Amino acid sequence: MTDLDLRLVRYFTAVAEHRHFGRAAASLHTTQPSLSRQIRRLEGQLGARLLDRTPQGTRLTEAGEVFLPRARALLRSAEQAAASTRAAAAPSRVTIGYRTNLFVTPAVRELRRRHPEAEVLTQHLGWTETRAALLEHRVDVAVTRLPLRADGLRVTVLYDEERVLLVSADHRLAGRKSVTLADFADEPLPRVDDPDWNTFWRLDPRPDGSRAPDGPLVREFEEKFELIAAGQLAAIVPAGVRFSRLRHDVTIVPVDGIEPCQVALATRAADDNDLLTSACKTLEAHLTSPEAAGLTAR
Hints:
Blueprint: H1 6-18, H2 21-28, H3 32-46, E1 51-54, E2 57-60, H4 62-89, E3 93-98, H5 105-114, E4 119-124, H6 130-135, E5 141-145, E6 153-161, E7 163-168, E8 189-191, H7 195-201, E9 214-217, H8 221-229, E10 235-238, H9 243-246, E11 250-254, E12 261-268, H10 274-286
Parallel strand pairs: 3-4, 3-5, 8-9
Antiparallel strand pairs: 1-2, 5-12, 6-12, 7-10, 7-11
Helix pairs in contact: 1-2, 1-3, 1-4, 2-3, 5-10
């Protein structure tokens, strides 16, 4: 049995990602000769050469290509094991993740009142960040919108939320009482690095099997806003996100004939402690649909 030093494994992944010993050494805050020695130690433990130096930089050997995904998985597993252990040892802390316009403040206040001995933290989550934030133990419970891959998670749907079209204030569809998919079938819609998100929020593929026109790949909330306001694309968004109250150069138009999105509560499937249970119950009690709160798109 080979006992691998995780520090050496981390050094190897850094060189593999940078494809250069010098840049990897700088990112690890070590020297290049020291890094080279550590890589040789790892190769000695494994009995295989992992990296070759070339005039162009560093390349993975065949053995290195095989080891790299396993090395990354090993580091992730170690981090998750450490995070799980910390969580089990200190259930007096809970971190609540939330998506844009899913307001958790009233629930957080009540939790802090009910559990003055506990640390109740919050963290905003990006469009496609929920699953990773939970599995990496950055948050313990997330208030999110579906779709969300549920394997390894426990997901409870809270309510449905209409989807609407977000366009520039001077768009040809602005001011309409409602539209159908046919009205904006040729509009480019933004993409993200998540196929499930793209399928649902771009209606791609369409009911007739056709593909949605490709808009730009966006990563930031404000980036999408600017492109829509400039008339370069439209976007399907949740009705509860009150974009038109944030700025006057965009507007929302109700969409007929498409299914709503769903707001849900998600935790890690294996997690179970009194503070987490209390957090989930409090969030469920406080979270309200846009219709019930008087925040409909119309």
